[in-house]
Design goal:
The structure is a single chain. The protein is an all-alpha fold. It folds into two domains: 215 residues, no CATH class; 178 residues, no CATH class. Helix content is 65%, strand content 0%. It is built from 16 helices and no strands. Helix 10 packs parallel to helix 15 and helix 12 packs antiparallel against helix 14. The N terminus is likely disordered.
Length: 394
């Protein structure tokens, strides 16, 4: 039992468990020994960024309409970033870890990774796990966060902290504004950059796996050589896309409500966000395009020759009336009649060279589109909005 459990563990690659933030949070008691502590961490980091800001704004009478022309309540971006996006970015670790734990062993169980390639496969997982657990990438992320927080252009972003300025519009922000700039926004940025690093990790892992001698099945009904189950992997990033989309949309919502921004004029930016989200979070799957293309090219030749041989024998026996030797190709039950052999070749021709289908695209696209629809509903009637979306889909 212990040996089988150990073998199963060697096929695991938790995308989050074991990295530097995970280890630090476990030492702080935010992550228990037997879990991820998603809820407690989501509440802790969200409140750490948001609560001091709100308490200060209430204390100086800048939370609700009154002294400030645009009080804290009016800045949707701050609340969406800290109350929604930060928790979502943390909770997203759960499905991401679960999907990698479920799908990577399936490469072995399905036979895609043959017994001969099992040892290199395990070595690949171990090497990528060491890269995941390295300290340097997170030091780089920390440096980017600090640089962003301390750059004057980033600090004095238009409208974002007007509610926290004491006196003239060009005055320095008070405690609440500084807390948001240096703490709240930094928490959000660190989480986003952490997820971008994990996408890079997954790209590295999949590229390394794609270099192994994989046993691709060109006739597999999933039309991706038997690795179609990997299409579920992007769903693990759907909450990340939703979190980023909420922040982007909330900023547009503020400008629409308080600065007269015409939201329909942003259709290019909205489309660009949806497309960029899909490209980024579907990118890891593109690593398998190489072996799938090679398998398809080889299979078209091999299965083309097989179908041709089968067809010539059928033609000689039934059209030309010639006696045909007892050829195994004609009698093979797995090939069957001419129609079946043609279907096998059609299956090879229909094989996709990238494992990206509806199961991969829909979770990312939906997560990116939903915040855009919500903000558009401020100025566009919901019925008209849904009709336009339905027309575009049809």
């Amino acid at each position: 039992m212990n040996s089988s459990q150990s073998a199963a563990d060697m096929l695991q690659f938790p995308l989050v468990r074991g990295d530097l933030p995970f280890r630090l949070q476990r030492r702080l008691g935010l992550i228990p020994a037997d879990g991820l502590g998603l809820v407690r961490r989501a509440v802790f980091w969200s409140m750490l960024g948001w609560l001091p800001i709100v308490l200060w704004a209430i204390y100086v009478n800048r939370a609700l309409p009154g002294i400030a022309a645009e009080p804290l309540l009016a800045h949707f971006g701050i609340h969406s970033r800290l109350l929604f996006a930060v928790p979502l970015l943390i909770v997203a670790e759960g499905p991401a870890n679960a999907l990698t734990a479920r799908l990577l062993p399936q490469l072995v169980q399905s036979g895609i990774v043959s017994p001969e390639a099992l040892a290199p496969f395990r070595s690949t997982l171990a090497a990528t796990a060491r890269l995941r657990d390295a300290t340097l990438p997170w030091l780089v992320i920390l440096g980017v966060v600090v640089a962003f927080a301390t750059t004057s252009e980033a600090i004095h972003h238009a409208h974002e902290i007007d509610w926290a300025r004491e006196g003239a519009a060009e005055a320095a922000p008070g405690f609440g504004g500084l807390w948001y700039l240096y703490v709240g926004r930094s928490i959000f940025l660190a989480l986003v950059l952490g997820w971008l690093w994990r996408v890079v990790l997954l790209v590295v892992l999949f590229r390394r796996i794609a270099r192994l001698p994989l046993s691709i099945v060109p006739t597999h009904p999933d039309r991706t050589g038997g690795i179609g189950f990997l299409e579920w992997m992007p769903a693990g990033f759907a909450l990340v896309v939703l979190a980023i989309g909420i922040v982007v949309a909330s900023r547009w919502a503020h400008d629409a409500v308080y600065h007269g921004l015409a939201l329909p004029s942003l259709h290019i930016q909205m489309i660009a966000f949806v497309v960029a989200s899909m490209v980024l979070f579907l990118l890891p799957l593109a690593a398998f395009s190489g072996p799938l293309k090679r398998a398809k090219r080889r299979a078209i030749l091999d299965y083309g020759a097989l179908v041709g041989r089968h067809g010539r024998l059928v033609h000689e026996r039934w059209i030309l009336g010639r006696p045909v030797a007892d050829d195994a190709v004609l009698n093979a039950p797995e090939l069957g009649p001419v129609a079946d052999t043609a279907a096998v070749f059609d299956a090879v021709k229909a094989m996709r060279t990238v494992p990206i289908g509806k199961a991969a695209v829909l979770p990312i696209a939906a997560a990116a589109i939903l915040p855009m629809l919500a903000v558009l509903a401020i100025q566009v009637p919901v019925k008209e909005l849904l009709l336009k979306l339905l027309t575009a889909l049809i």
